[in-house]
Amino acid sequence: MPRKRPAIRYCEPRLRRARCATGGPACPSRLRRRNIVPNRPETILEGLKQYRPHVQDNNGMVKVGIIGDYDKTSPTHLLTDAALSHTATALGVPYFSQWLPTDATHDLALFDAFLCAPGSPYKSLEGALTGIRFARENRKPLLGTCGGFQHIVLEYARNVMGFSDVAHAEYDPYASNLIVQSLSCSLKGKVMAVQIEPDSVAARAYGSFTAEENYYCNFGMNPAYQQKLHDAGLHITGWDADKEARIVELPDHPFYLGTLFVPQSRSTETSPHPVILAFVSAAL
What we know:
Layout: E1 8-11, H1 28-33, H2 41-49, E2 62-67, H3 75-91, E3 95-100, E4 113-116, H4 125-137, E5 142-145, H5 147-159, E6 167-168, E7 178-182, E8 191-196, H6 201-206, E9 210-214, E10 219-221, H7 226-231, E11 235-239, E12 245-249, E13 256-259, H8 274-282
Parallel strand pairs: 2-3, 2-4, 4-5, 5-13, 6-7
Antiparallel strand pairs: 1-3, 7-10, 8-9, 8-11, 11-12, 12-13
Helix pairs in contact: 2-8, 3-8, 4-5
């Protein structure tokens, strides 16, 4: 039986200006009333120039490795491909994306950035953690959403904090130290508000301190570990109404951010999601 080739996406988009079609929390007309400048593509690029002068002259292809086991029937996987396309079109940059099955070995150095996709449990827990660790240690932009958020937390606790016995309930529900646990109330299918820490990577991406996002998950961070992770450097910068973690980030990394929600689900061709815009911009 012939070997199945990995899912690959190519895009050489025309430059389009992103517009807000939703009137949501980050809509430009609403932000102007609060004297907040929304992060349109040109605004993101302008802001990046002060930190990364080569952005202005970089016309090369952005290569994104998508950590996850692609399933053509998964809505979040289809949304992930679409969101990257929306973003590349808005920024006017060509891009190449390839899904990286977690149970295979990959040359990770070939990629400019990584997106750890929804869809856990992955075929290989260690394969997913290897990709996340590579991005963290080599300062490659990383965005993890839903299951990606959960595995960012697990990788950091194990490899940075030295908590080698922490586990994810989806793989080992009876482990004694669950850093990712089953939620008492599933978030799957819910739309919920997120409070965002001012002066965080997330706040700069949104241009706002609040957002409304879509969830697909049944697992989340164990609240008992929130302060420990934050104190160890993986900052909690987004919460729900009960102060449970919804966004994590590394402030001293070019871009390293996890969301328990799925921003891909709110991206459209005319209004790419601001978090995806910030992620791809960091890879330019």
